[in-house]
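Record minuted for completeness.

…
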Amino acid sequence: MDSAADGTERGFRAGLSRTRAAYLALRDRIARGEFRPGERFPGEPTLAVELGVSRVTLRHALDRLEAEGLVERRMGSGTYLSARGGGSPVVADLANVLTHLVDMGRRTSVRLLSFAYVAPSPDIASALQLPEGERVQRSERVRLIDGQPFSYLVTSVPERIGIGWSEDDLAKKPLLELLERAGLVADHARQTITAALAGPDVARELGIEPGSALLALTRTVFDPQGRGIEHLQALYRPDLYSFQMDLVRAGHREGRRWRPVAVEGLKLDDEHPKTAAE
């Protein structure tokens, strides 16, 4: 690469970095409640000075916020925080992993990306306690809230279970509902949560830049007999999804400790529609 091209490339990367920094700074101010829904932002010259960027860079950052539905650009008037403000992100209760899925299912929709029967990886086979040679039904999906993608899900269920539903079922119905339809009970689960960076494919589906930080969750769901019935690998946008846990103090004196607040277990009946989701 010649020096001119190299300089152009460095300039492009720097410009992209400044745009992202301005976008994140504005998102942070929105999240902190500095602007009320419907309130007008300061003018572009003022915002550009506050953020230390050019007006061109600022406009690119505002374009991203507008694409996410967070702001409205009105010709000749300015930029306003949208009526829904910072939105209403999904909040998952860590202490009651199965219960919170019902609410998520009511508020979200799903887009099916792929569907196949494959040999599981050693880790998934071990987590589900599969006999040697058993395949899994593997699906990749994106879950959306208010039309905006917030999670990328890779689900594996034993073939003997998944064979009972179709690709169309997975595109329209929550997985826990399909498990219930098959006569299975999601009794308990084991999960781990860590952090990850978005690869190009995931970034494209979630509408974010490659390398963006994500919440990564791995969950195995078991029936009452302790048999694995679902394995989930999920990546979540942290601006649209978060985890919480209510705690109480338990024990006496030196043995006092924090423990999760217990909530009634999930029961799918007429009072609680079968609309659970990942």
Q: What stands out?
A: The CA atoms of residues 107 and 129 lie 33 Å apart. The longest helix spans residues 3-31. The two ends are 47 Å apart (CA to CA).
